[in-house]
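Dear support,

I submitted the protein below through the web form. The confirmation email said the job was done, but the results page showed an empty box. After a refresh the structure appeared. I'm attaching both so you can tell me whether what I see now is the final result or a partial one.
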Amino acid sequence: MVKVLVADSIHEDGVKMMRDAGLELDMQTEITADALKKVIGGYDAIVVRSRTKLTKDVLENSGSLKVIARAGVGLDNVDVAYAKGKGIEVYNSPEAPSNAVAELVLGFMLDLARNISRGDHGLKQGKWLKKDLGGFELAGRTLGIIGFGRIGYLLGKKAKALGMEVLAFDVMMDRIRHLVVEVGAKDVALDELLAGSDFVSVHVPLLPQTKHMISSAQFNKMKKGAYIINAARGGVVDEAALKAALEEGRHGGAALDVFEREPDPDPDLVTRSDVVCTPHIGAESEEAQRGNSTIVAEKLIKFFK
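What the results page shows now:
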Protein backbone atom coordinates (compact mmCIF):
# COMPACT_ATOMS: atom_id res chain seq x y z
CA MET A 1 0.00 0.00 0.00
CA VAL A 2 1.33 3.45 -1.00
CA LYS A 3 1.25 5.79 1.99
CA VAL A 4 0.76 9.52 1.30
CA LEU A 5 1.04 12.25 3.94
CA VAL A 6 -1.16 15.25 3.09
CA ALA A 7 0.51 18.00 5.13
CA ASP A 8 -1.62 20.94 3.96
CA SER A 9 -5.29 21.27 3.09
CA ILE A 10 -6.11 20.53 -0.55
CA HIS A 11 -9.37 20.39 -2.49
CA GLU A 12 -11.47 17.31 -1.78
CA ASP A 13 -11.56 16.29 -5.46
CA GLY A 14 -7.86 15.46 -5.42
CA VAL A 15 -8.24 13.61 -2.13
CA LYS A 16 -11.03 11.49 -3.62
CA MET A 17 -8.99 10.73 -6.76
CA MET A 18 -6.05 9.44 -4.74
CA ARG A 19 -8.22 7.34 -2.45
CA ASP A 20 -10.15 5.90 -5.41
CA ALA A 21 -6.81 4.94 -6.96
CA GLY A 22 -5.91 2.94 -3.85
CA LEU A 23 -3.46 5.34 -2.20
CA GLU A 24 -3.57 5.42 1.59
CA LEU A 25 -3.86 9.04 2.74
CA ASP A 26 -2.88 10.38 6.15
CA MET A 27 -4.48 13.84 6.51
CA GLN A 28 -2.27 15.84 8.91
CA THR A 29 -2.93 19.31 7.54
CA GLU A 30 -1.66 21.19 10.61
CA ILE A 31 1.49 19.15 11.22
CA THR A 32 4.43 21.10 12.62
CA ALA A 33 7.96 21.07 11.24
CA ASP A 34 9.29 19.22 14.28
CA ALA A 35 6.60 16.56 14.04
CA LEU A 36 7.11 16.24 10.29
CA LYS A 37 10.84 15.59 10.70
CA LYS A 38 10.05 12.60 12.91
CA VAL A 39 7.50 10.92 10.62
CA ILE A 40 8.28 11.92 7.03
CA GLY A 41 10.49 8.86 6.43
CA GLY A 42 7.50 6.56 6.94
CA TYR A 43 5.66 7.75 3.84
CA ASP A 44 6.07 7.12 0.13
CA ALA A 45 4.86 10.60 -0.82
CA ILE A 46 3.98 13.94 0.72
CA VAL A 47 1.56 16.60 -0.55
CA VAL A 48 2.10 20.22 0.52
CA ARG A 49 0.98 23.71 -0.37
CA SER A 50 2.87 26.81 0.80
CA ARG A 51 2.52 26.41 4.59
CA THR A 52 4.76 23.37 4.94
CA LYS A 53 8.48 23.99 4.38
CA LEU A 54 10.40 20.97 3.12
CA THR A 55 13.88 22.15 3.99
CA LYS A 56 17.09 20.11 4.04
CA ASP A 57 16.62 19.70 7.77
CA VAL A 58 13.12 18.24 7.34
CA LEU A 59 14.16 16.01 4.43
CA GLU A 60 17.37 14.72 6.01
CA ASN A 61 15.71 11.55 7.32
CA SER A 62 13.37 11.05 4.39
CA GLY A 63 13.47 7.25 4.63
CA SER A 64 11.17 5.70 2.03
CA LEU A 65 9.94 9.04 0.65
CA LYS A 66 9.87 8.89 -3.14
CA VAL A 67 7.78 11.89 -4.20
CA ILE A 68 7.05 15.47 -3.10
CA ALA A 69 3.92 16.99 -4.64
CA ARG A 70 3.45 20.75 -4.24
CA ALA A 71 -0.14 21.76 -4.97
CA GLY A 72 0.62 25.14 -6.50
CA VAL A 73 3.09 27.07 -8.62
CA GLY A 74 6.20 28.00 -6.64
CA LEU A 75 8.71 25.55 -5.21
CA ASP A 76 10.50 28.03 -2.96
CA ASN A 77 9.23 26.13 0.11
CA VAL A 78 10.92 22.94 -1.10
CA ASP A 79 14.68 22.31 -1.20
CA VAL A 80 14.41 20.82 -4.68
CA ALA A 81 18.12 20.27 -5.23
CA TYR A 82 18.52 18.40 -1.94
CA ALA A 83 15.39 16.32 -2.59
CA LYS A 84 16.51 15.31 -6.06
CA GLY A 85 19.96 14.54 -4.71
CA LYS A 86 18.29 11.97 -2.50
CA GLY A 87 16.40 10.52 -5.46
CA ILE A 88 13.06 12.11 -4.55
CA GLU A 89 10.86 13.28 -7.42
CA VAL A 90 9.34 16.76 -7.08
CA TYR A 91 6.06 17.72 -8.77
CA ASN A 92 3.94 20.86 -8.75
CA SER A 93 0.92 22.24 -10.60
CA PRO A 94 1.96 25.54 -12.22
CA GLU A 95 -0.83 25.45 -14.79
CA ALA A 96 -3.72 25.39 -12.29
CA PRO A 97 -3.68 28.88 -10.67
CA SER A 98 -2.63 30.90 -13.73
CA ASN A 99 -6.00 32.40 -14.61
CA ALA A 100 -6.88 33.08 -10.97
CA VAL A 101 -3.69 35.10 -10.47
CA ALA A 102 -4.15 36.96 -13.76
CA GLU A 103 -7.69 37.93 -12.74
CA LEU A 104 -6.51 39.11 -9.32
CA VAL A 105 -3.92 41.39 -10.96
CA LEU A 106 -6.61 42.76 -13.25
CA GLY A 107 -8.72 43.45 -10.16
CA PHE A 108 -5.78 45.25 -8.57
CA MET A 109 -5.41 47.50 -11.61
CA LEU A 110 -9.10 48.41 -11.59
CA ASP A 111 -8.91 49.09 -7.86
CA LEU A 112 -5.85 51.31 -8.18
CA ALA A 113 -7.26 53.18 -11.15
CA ARG A 114 -10.69 53.85 -9.61
CA ASN A 115 -9.89 53.95 -5.86
CA ILE A 116 -12.40 51.22 -5.06
CA SER A 117 -10.82 50.13 -1.78
CA ARG A 118 -10.31 53.71 -0.59
CA GLY A 119 -13.90 54.61 -1.39
CA ASP A 120 -15.18 51.53 0.42
CA HIS A 121 -12.99 52.23 3.45
CA GLY A 122 -14.15 55.85 3.57
CA LEU A 123 -17.83 54.94 3.48
CA LYS A 124 -17.35 52.40 6.26
CA GLN A 125 -15.92 55.27 8.33
CA GLY A 126 -18.89 57.50 7.48
CA LYS A 127 -16.95 59.62 4.95
CA TRP A 128 -18.19 60.67 1.50
CA LEU A 129 -14.88 61.03 -0.37
CA LYS A 130 -16.23 61.54 -3.88
CA LYS A 131 -14.20 64.69 -4.57
CA ASP A 132 -11.00 63.07 -3.32
CA LEU A 133 -11.19 59.89 -5.37
CA GLY A 134 -10.88 60.93 -8.98
CA GLY A 135 -9.50 58.10 -11.08
CA PHE A 136 -8.69 57.10 -14.63
CA GLU A 137 -9.59 54.42 -17.16
CA LEU A 138 -7.41 51.47 -18.08
CA ALA A 139 -8.13 51.78 -21.80
CA GLY A 140 -5.21 53.50 -23.47
CA ARG A 141 -2.85 52.93 -20.54
CA THR A 142 0.25 50.73 -20.70
CA LEU A 143 0.85 47.58 -18.69
CA GLY A 144 4.37 46.24 -18.36
CA ILE A 145 4.59 42.52 -17.60
CA ILE A 146 7.87 41.19 -16.20
CA GLY A 147 7.86 37.44 -16.84
CA PHE A 148 5.66 36.32 -19.73
CA GLY A 149 4.90 32.75 -18.69
CA ARG A 150 1.43 31.29 -18.18
CA ILE A 151 0.22 34.07 -15.89
CA GLY A 152 1.85 36.91 -17.82
CA TYR A 153 0.39 35.59 -21.06
CA LEU A 154 -3.16 35.41 -19.68
CA LEU A 155 -2.84 38.81 -18.03
CA GLY A 156 -1.63 40.30 -21.31
CA LYS A 157 -4.66 38.91 -23.16
CA LYS A 158 -7.05 40.38 -20.59
CA ALA A 159 -5.33 43.76 -20.63
CA LYS A 160 -5.46 43.92 -24.42
CA ALA A 161 -9.18 43.12 -24.29
CA LEU A 162 -9.62 46.23 -22.13
CA GLY A 163 -7.81 48.39 -24.67
CA MET A 164 -4.47 48.58 -22.91
CA GLU A 165 -1.05 48.55 -24.49
CA VAL A 166 1.16 45.72 -23.23
CA LEU A 167 4.95 45.64 -22.91
CA ALA A 168 6.66 42.34 -22.08
CA PHE A 169 10.06 41.46 -20.67
CA ASP A 170 11.31 37.92 -20.12
CA VAL A 171 14.83 36.53 -19.83
CA MET A 172 13.64 33.60 -21.98
CA MET A 173 12.11 35.83 -24.66
CA ASP A 174 13.58 33.80 -27.52
CA ARG A 175 11.47 30.84 -26.39
CA ILE A 176 8.20 32.68 -25.76
CA ARG A 177 8.24 35.51 -28.30
CA HIS A 178 5.46 33.77 -30.28
CA LEU A 179 3.18 34.18 -27.24
CA VAL A 180 3.99 37.88 -27.03
CA VAL A 181 3.14 38.23 -30.72
CA GLU A 182 -0.08 36.24 -30.25
CA VAL A 183 -1.22 38.59 -27.49
CA GLY A 184 -0.32 41.68 -29.49
CA ALA A 185 2.23 42.82 -26.94
CA LYS A 186 5.67 44.30 -27.58
CA ASP A 187 8.83 42.69 -26.23
CA VAL A 188 11.22 45.28 -24.80
CA ALA A 189 14.22 45.58 -22.52
CA LEU A 190 13.49 45.86 -18.80
CA ASP A 191 14.51 49.51 -18.57
CA GLU A 192 12.22 50.41 -21.48
CA LEU A 193 9.36 48.56 -19.83
CA LEU A 194 9.87 50.38 -16.53
CA ALA A 195 10.07 53.79 -18.20
CA GLY A 196 7.03 53.28 -20.42
CA SER A 197 4.47 51.53 -18.22
CA ASP A 198 1.61 52.96 -16.16
CA PHE A 199 1.37 49.62 -14.35
CA VAL A 200 4.24 47.18 -13.80
CA SER A 201 3.26 43.63 -12.81
CA VAL A 202 5.87 41.06 -11.80
CA HIS A 203 5.46 37.36 -12.63
CA VAL A 204 8.73 35.56 -11.96
CA PRO A 205 9.66 32.80 -9.49
CA LEU A 206 11.68 33.61 -6.40
CA LEU A 207 15.23 32.50 -7.19
CA PRO A 208 18.62 33.84 -6.07
CA GLN A 209 18.81 35.84 -9.30
CA THR A 210 15.31 37.33 -8.88
CA LYS A 211 15.61 38.24 -5.18
CA HIS A 212 14.93 42.01 -4.98
CA MET A 213 15.04 42.34 -8.77
CA ILE A 214 12.70 45.30 -8.29
CA SER A 215 14.55 47.64 -5.95
CA SER A 216 15.61 51.29 -5.74
CA ALA A 217 17.27 51.38 -9.16
CA GLN A 218 14.17 49.98 -10.84
CA PHE A 219 11.78 52.26 -8.96
CA ASN A 220 13.85 55.25 -10.05
CA LYS A 221 13.45 54.19 -13.68
CA MET A 222 9.65 53.93 -13.53
CA LYS A 223 7.59 56.79 -14.92
CA LYS A 224 6.09 59.32 -12.52
CA GLY A 225 2.72 58.19 -11.18
CA ALA A 226 3.19 54.53 -12.15
CA TYR A 227 1.98 51.60 -10.05
CA ILE A 228 3.80 48.40 -9.09
CA ILE A 229 1.91 45.11 -8.64
CA ASN A 230 3.35 41.95 -7.11
CA ALA A 231 1.33 38.74 -7.09
CA ALA A 232 4.37 36.49 -7.64
CA ARG A 233 6.58 36.08 -4.56
CA GLY A 234 7.30 38.62 -1.84
CA GLY A 235 11.07 38.60 -2.11
CA VAL A 236 11.02 39.65 -5.76
CA VAL A 237 10.17 43.22 -4.73
CA ASP A 238 12.40 44.98 -2.20
CA GLU A 239 9.79 46.22 0.28
CA ALA A 240 12.13 48.69 1.99
CA ALA A 241 12.89 50.25 -1.39
CA LEU A 242 9.17 50.25 -2.24
CA LYS A 243 8.33 52.15 0.96
CA ALA A 244 11.06 54.68 0.22
CA ALA A 245 9.79 55.14 -3.35
CA LEU A 246 6.23 55.68 -2.15
CA GLU A 247 7.40 58.15 0.49
CA GLU A 248 9.04 60.21 -2.25
CA GLY A 249 5.63 60.60 -3.90
CA ARG A 250 6.77 59.76 -7.42
CA HIS A 251 4.62 56.65 -7.73
CA GLY A 252 0.88 56.28 -7.87
CA GLY A 253 0.87 53.36 -5.44
CA ALA A 254 1.22 49.61 -5.24
CA ALA A 255 -0.82 46.42 -5.01
CA LEU A 256 0.60 43.42 -3.18
CA ASP A 257 -0.67 39.88 -2.72
CA VAL A 258 2.66 38.53 -1.47
CA PHE A 259 5.15 39.75 1.08
CA GLU A 260 8.69 39.18 2.27
CA ARG A 261 7.27 38.12 5.65
CA GLU A 262 4.17 35.97 5.66
CA PRO A 263 1.80 35.88 7.49
CA ASP A 264 3.08 38.99 9.32
CA PRO A 265 3.96 41.57 6.64
CA ASP A 266 5.44 44.97 7.42
CA PRO A 267 2.61 47.02 9.01
CA ASP A 268 4.16 50.27 7.84
CA LEU A 269 3.69 49.07 4.26
CA VAL A 270 0.30 47.37 4.36
CA THR A 271 -1.41 50.21 6.23
CA ARG A 272 -0.50 52.86 3.67
CA SER A 273 -3.47 54.41 1.87
CA ASP A 274 -1.64 54.13 -1.47
CA VAL A 275 -1.12 50.37 -1.12
CA VAL A 276 -3.82 47.77 -1.81
CA CYS A 277 -3.13 44.44 -0.11
CA THR A 278 -4.50 40.92 -0.01
CA PRO A 279 -3.19 37.97 2.08
CA HIS A 280 -1.65 35.80 -0.66
CA ILE A 281 -4.98 34.87 -2.25
CA GLY A 282 -3.84 34.72 -5.87
CA ALA A 283 -4.59 31.00 -6.17
CA GLU A 284 -7.53 30.94 -3.75
CA SER A 285 -10.27 30.57 -6.36
CA GLU A 286 -12.43 27.45 -6.31
CA GLU A 287 -11.23 26.55 -9.80
CA ALA A 288 -7.54 26.99 -9.01
CA GLN A 289 -7.71 24.98 -5.80
CA ARG A 290 -9.55 22.14 -7.52
CA GLY A 291 -6.99 22.21 -10.32
CA ASN A 292 -4.01 22.23 -7.94
CA SER A 293 -5.42 19.24 -6.09
CA THR A 294 -6.43 17.12 -9.07
CA ILE A 295 -3.26 17.82 -11.07
CA VAL A 296 -0.92 16.68 -8.28
CA ALA A 297 -3.24 13.72 -7.63
CA GLU A 298 -2.94 12.68 -11.28
CA LYS A 299 0.85 12.98 -11.13
CA LEU A 300 1.10 10.89 -7.98
CA ILE A 301 -1.25 8.20 -9.29
CA LYS A 302 0.73 8.01 -12.54
CA PHE A 303 4.03 7.78 -10.68
CA PHE A 304 2.98 4.93 -8.43
CA LYS A 305 1.28 2.99 -11.20
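Response: this is the final, complete result; the empty box was a page-load delay. The mean pLDDT is 97.
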